[in-house]
Structures are given as C-alpha cells and as structure tokens.
Write a sequence for this structure.
C-alpha cells in the first residue's frame, strides 16, 4: 500500500526532487500489532532532517493522519507486523538545484512485508564483515536519514553471501562508524560505547533508545570512535535498528565474539518498551 | 515530454531506486536545431557511471532510439533549443540497499525549456560567489554524475540573488573544485588550469571538450587545485557546462576579474563544434 500526499497510488511525478537529486529524507518504522513503534521519535528526526536541509515541512499533522489510515488498512488486512517507510521530499520542480518557492513537500508512505529473518539472529547473533567503501565526513549532512544513499549501496553490494547479515563501515580515518543499515555498540568492562555521528552516519532512533535504556539501567554509555581492534577486544558487540531491534554480533570477518548478558538485557528492555503513536 | 522506459508518462513507480536511494546517474544534454550536442560523450559518461555503480546498463541502443524519438517530437513542435535530461536508475525494488537481481535499469528522458539567460552572460561575464558547503572527498563516487546531489542543493540554496550566476565549491581542504552546476578553469600566463576531479566533483563533458580544444590550439592545460588567491590572481576565469557553454567570470565575491581573449577563443571554438548524434 502506498500513499503519495494522501492519495493511494504507486506512482510519483518524475519531476519530484526526491528522484532528481535525492532531495529528501526518510524513516523506516516498525508496525507491530496496531502500533507504529517510536513514531514520535521518527517524526521528530524527520522534521529535524527537513529543517537541516531547508525543506519547509509543515505537514506533520497531515502525515500522522495518513499514517493512522495506513495502520487502519494494515489492521483490516489482519497484518500483525509490517515495515512502514515514510519519505518526505522537497517536492516537485524548481530550476536545477535551486529549491523551488511555494512548493509543498511530497509525503510518501509505503508498507512492506516484515522481513523473514531467522530468530537465531537475535538470540545467537549474526556474522558481519568490514566494508571497503568508506563513509565520508560531511558535517552538514551527518546524522540525517537523507535520500543520498550511494555509499550504503556500494558498501552493501560488496557481498552477496546470505550468511553475512551486515557490513560495518569506517570513516576516511579508519574509525568504525556504523553498519550499512544499523548502528553499532560495543560492551567493554560493563560500559557501552557507540561511535559519534557528528561527521557522518545516521542517528538511529533505536541507538538513542538504547542509550536512554542504558542510562536508566545504570550502564555507562559513551560516544567514541571504535577501531577494528576494539571490536575484537570487546566483551560484546551488537548492531541495532528500528526493524531488527538488537542483534548480537558473533563473528566479524574470521574473528568470533562472545554473545553476552548486557546485550540480552538491552534486548529485553527494548522489546518491553511500547511507545504509543 | 517525458519517456519512462520508452513510454510517454510523467509518472514513475515509487519503488524506483532512483527515488528511494538516489541510486542512479543522469546527463543534461543540449538540443540545438535537431541535434543533441556531444551525445556520444554524454552516453559514454552515462555508461561509465553505471559501470562504476555496478548498474548493469545494456540499453544504450534502446536509449538512443528513444532519444531519436524525442528529437523528432521536438522538431515536430518546431522547438529549436531544449534541454534533454537523461536519468538511468538501477530500477525498481530490491531488499534495502542490496541491488536487486535481474531487474532492468530504468531509463527516463525528459525535455525542458531552454533557459532564458542574458546574452551578456557569455559576452560580458557573470558574478559568482564562494559557497560555504564543501564537496567531500569520495574517490569511489568522484567524477560520476550520480543522483546524490544534496551537497549541490545545500550550496545552491546559500543565495537567492539573481545577480549571482553560480557558487564555487571547495573540497574539505579549501581547494576550489567546481561550481554547483559547472566546471571551472583559470587562465594564467597563457596556460589553462582546471581542478582535478579524482576525489570529488563531476567530470564535465564541456570541460573535457575544452581541454581537447585547448590541446589542439596549442594552449597548455593542466589539472591542478586552485586556491581562492589563484582565482583573484588569474588573467581570466571561466565556468562551463553543456547548456551554458562557456561563461567568463567577471566578479567573484567583491573582486572583479578581467574578461579575456583566451576565454573568447575557446567560446568560439566550442560553438563551432557540431557533434552529430
């Protein structure tokens, strides 16, 4: 099911700046049993991303009504779990790169099947690799979930082995920043460490939620760059995003890693959180 | 007029990866009196860009037939000059960033009115500014005219004064690389200098043509980074792209620059070239 500016259609004008330039932002939201999880946080990030790109997005209430409609249709179809993707672009037209004046941003909501990952991913952990493709430092775009995703595409297409769940990406200096579709944490001596995202990477909603959970659980959490040797020397390593929640990482390249108690604790607390629309 | 995979339509599936991730490349071609100028060079760059992104584009002949059809319609409408934009995306669908298998790339051809620039731009020169937004070093994407254009959009939206024709962009080290929609050359002591594009920027067709013309005219041309003081100390500075051709730059920020003979010579030789489809 797809809604473009509230209208059921699978088509978008070719002139939309989302296609022409990747001029927009997106969110990937988990739908579980009638609810869009962490929706407020997703909409906040969407609004912040628009603001940073200079997109005048004032349709948040309208978008929420459309999301409500989508949830109603998923419910009517007895769909328990789905992925709901929201895209907001600067809209259609304009003279080249210059933003058009008086054009309303485009809202696109689409639903997708819940991915059929093995339950072992969350319980026993996954294998990941290190990508060659780098994330470039770009402070004006860092943190935003924008539509310019060629770095992630090049990184993701470095492997086609289904046994590898994710690829970790480094910045130009060789610091590990995140995965192609997830953020990353390591546990070391009872402390959580996750890379800062002020120069590149996407500020994940689940990452922020985990930092919050950790704070309340008395687990110290710091933002610091992680080198390859830090991964191998960690007590636990895990990846996270809005759809998978938390997956322990049990192997990076040829190096095996322990799957531990803090990851399990955070998994349990994250699952227990039920954020209402 | 728009053709999507050969079919006249103004719409594209929302699932197209061009929209979802900016997963594609584009070309902007000048149509003059029945001909698409430098089409072979544009199609070569399109193919090379696809190759570098791992897009299996084998529809070059089909695309040429569709372009021929577009030219026929422009001719039938007695349109003398137009801008023809070609977009090729990786196609529709796929599981997240991973490229889908067996999906044909999407071909989009659209025609646009020829821009109504003052003739003075080419004869007397234009004013340009220096942008704050940087071009980040990304060797795997450098040179390609891909659909991830947020840097250019942020740069272009730094000003809305119609008296400023272009903004020059620097890399992270402060070297001037190119304009938001053009390449740049300086003339110094009878020699042409243009920045290298192996770390960021787009390898312009007109830039390559000018280097070729200069070579044949016995004007030495080197690729070297340009600093702000090199601009101000230059004998001549000009910008170029496929639509504007060559425009002398007569003012950068508050600094005026001479409009000189080598720029005029290159303009004349570029205009004289008639490359057939």
């Amino acid at each position: 099911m797809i809604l473009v500016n509230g209208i059921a259609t699978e088509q978008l004008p070719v002139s939309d700046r989302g296609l022409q330039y990747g001029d927009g932002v997106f969110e990937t939201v988990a739908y579980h049993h009638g609810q869009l999880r962490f929706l407020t946080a997703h909409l906040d990030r969407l609004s912040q991303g628009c603001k940073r790109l200079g997109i005048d997005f004032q349709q948040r209430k309208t978008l929420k009504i459309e999301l409500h409609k989508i949830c109603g249709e998923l419910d009517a179809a007895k769909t328990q779990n789905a992925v709901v993707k929201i895209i907001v672009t600067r809209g259609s037209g304009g003279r080249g790169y210059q933003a058009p004046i008086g054009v309303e941003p485009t809202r696109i909501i689409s639903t997708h099947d819940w991915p059929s990952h093995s339950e072992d991913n969350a319980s026993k952990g996954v294998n990941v690799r290190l990508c060659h493709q780098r994330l470039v430092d770009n402070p004006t775009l860092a943190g935003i979930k924008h539509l310019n995703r060629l770095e992630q595409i090049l990184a993701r297409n470095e492997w086609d082995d289904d046994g590898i769940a994710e690829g970790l990406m480094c910045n130009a200096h060789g610091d590990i920043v995140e995965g192609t579709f997830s953020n990353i944490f390591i546990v070391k001596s009872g402390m959580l460490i996750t890379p800062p995202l002020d120069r590149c990477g996407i500020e994940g909603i689940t990452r922020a939620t985990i930092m919050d959970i950790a704070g309340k659980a008395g687990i110290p959490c710091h933002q610091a760059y992680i080198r390859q040797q830090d991964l191998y020397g960690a007590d636990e390593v895990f990846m996270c995003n809005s759809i998978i929640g938390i997956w322990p990482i049990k192997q990076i390249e040829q190096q095996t890693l322990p799957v531990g108690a803090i990851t399990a604790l955070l998994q349990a607390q994250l699952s227990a959180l039920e954020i209402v629309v």
Q: What stands out?
A: Chain A is about 30% helix and 30% strand.
